Amino acid sequence: MKVKNILVSQPRPTNEKSPYFDLAEKHKIKIDFRQFIDIEGIDVCEFKQQKVKLLNFTAVIITSKTAIDNYFRLAEELRITVPTDMKFFCVSESVALYLQKYITYRKRKIFFGKRTFDDLLEILSKHQKEKFLLPVADVHKATIPTKLKKSKINFEKAVMYKTVSADLSDLSEVNYDVLVFFSPSGIESLIENFPEFKQNGTKIASFGTSTAVAVKKAGLRLDIKAPTKEAPSMTMAIDKFIKKNV
Asked: Do both 17 and 112 map to the same domain?
């Protein structure tokens, strides 16, 4: 089949140099973007059930801006003032700078990695005396906790937000040649919003092992998979598929 249009289940990239735009231009195809999942912060009562005390920790491991929003939201709702000596260890500089929304950046002890969690892990390993809090979503990959345990980092997880299916009622149908997914939650949202969805000739592309498993569990056919050795990114995997089906 010749690919003419693609729906990516993520927000439209803000960077005009996104590889998706290059892909669209290269093959003269239409690529739409639509977030299939929403993030909701858990309420205080649900948080308290975890028996996690924010002030019992000396540092916080931050992996996303969403984690920052919900950490400070819960602190406010619990009427807790985050201590000025609380340390923040962020996965990247851009995430670290987002802390300025809630605290005076220059007056805090803030550390950040270059780009990946492995970069941050090297920094965390130099602060073994700290007791770390790791804000996470209700559904999260075990990769980061596993790496922290392996490095003997003293930490505790706390679920502060959850992923829910977005309301896709504005989409009358998902009639695209290719649907692109990045998480099991995206697949769940597809089925929830379109219970009568029939794949037929539509190609399903997935990123990551857990997403691929979710595709198959939903009774759908997986046509494009990433990352692979030949296609480490989703755009490369789609590009490879299109070239084979010209």
From this structure: no
